[in-house]
TrEMBL record:
A single MF term (Gene Ontology): ADP-glucose pyrophosphohydrolase activity
Keywords: Hydrolase
CDD domains: NUDIX_ADPRase_Nudt5_UGPPase_Nudt14
GO biological process, alphabetically ordered: nucleoside phosphate metabolic process; ribose phosphate metabolic process
UniProt organism field: Elaphomyces granulatus
Superkingdom as given in the UniProt entry: Eukaryota
SUPFAM superfamilies the record matches: Nudix
Cofactors: Mg(2+)
Protein name: Nudix hydrolase domain-containing protein
Length: 205
């Protein structure tokens, strides 16, 4: 049973939900830890929904009611937001030996992050390489043509309350020292943007 907020259709929300997956495995696999007393999804209450634009679902807050027949329950408060991409960008002057860590810098973003309580939050580039990319994001995208995934299918930063997963990519690039120093001194913010880029020594990350 799914209880929806007014004006919301199940066809729009249900494809984003994966809450059935963990309960189905325990019922079909005899070796599963909870096979003898399986947890069952009884009900989902949609509590709040945000749209990016009309017809494009953004974030969903819901509560899943999951329990065994004996009354054992599991925490079911969920913030549904989907995945994002994280990229570790490392640049190094091209006048040092290629097999050394000397002179390596990491490109980080500085931007407002209201949930973190900061207007100048420093982080690796993440979750901004889609259709709504800003100029700074596109510049990062150009730098990461050769990026390769280095952390499997991704990490789950907060699996106790959110479905968010983040595939991580690594990109290392050698550049002229002067270009690196110029970017370090001047920063990389384009006019009208809320996102800027910052070079930080790798050992300080």
């Amino acid at each position: 049973m799914v209880n929806l907020t007014p004006g919301l259709h199940t066809a729009l929300v249900l494809p984003r939900m994966a809450v059935n997956a963990p309960t189905s495995a325990q019922q079909t696999d005899p070796s599963h830890e909870f096979h003898a007393a399986p947890y069952v999804l009884h009900q989902i209450d949609i509590q709040a929904v945000d749209f990016f634009r009309p017809g494009i679902l953004g974030f969903v807050k819901f509560r899943a009611h999951v329990s065994t027949h004996g009354g054992e329950t599991l925490p079911g408060s969920v913030f549904l937001r989907g995945g994002s991409v994280g990229i570790l960008l490392i640049v190094q002057p091209d006048d040092v030996p290629i097999d050394t860590e000397e002179g390596k810098f990491v490109i980080l973003t500085i931007q407002p992050r209201i949930p973190a309580g900061s207007l100048t939050f420093l982080e690796i580039p993440a979750g901004m390489l889609g259709d709504r990319s800003t100029g700074a994001a596109k510049e990062i995208q150009e730098e990461t043509v050769a990026a390769r995934r280095w952390r499997g299918d991704g990490v789950y930063p907060s699996p106790g309350g959110s479905d968010e997963f983040t595939p991580l990519f690594l990109c290392q690039k050698r550049m002229p020292r002067r270009e690196i120093e110029n970017r370090r001194l001047t920063g990389m913010r384009q006019e009208g943007e809320k996102i800027s880029l910052k070079l930080v020594p790798l050992e300080q990350l």
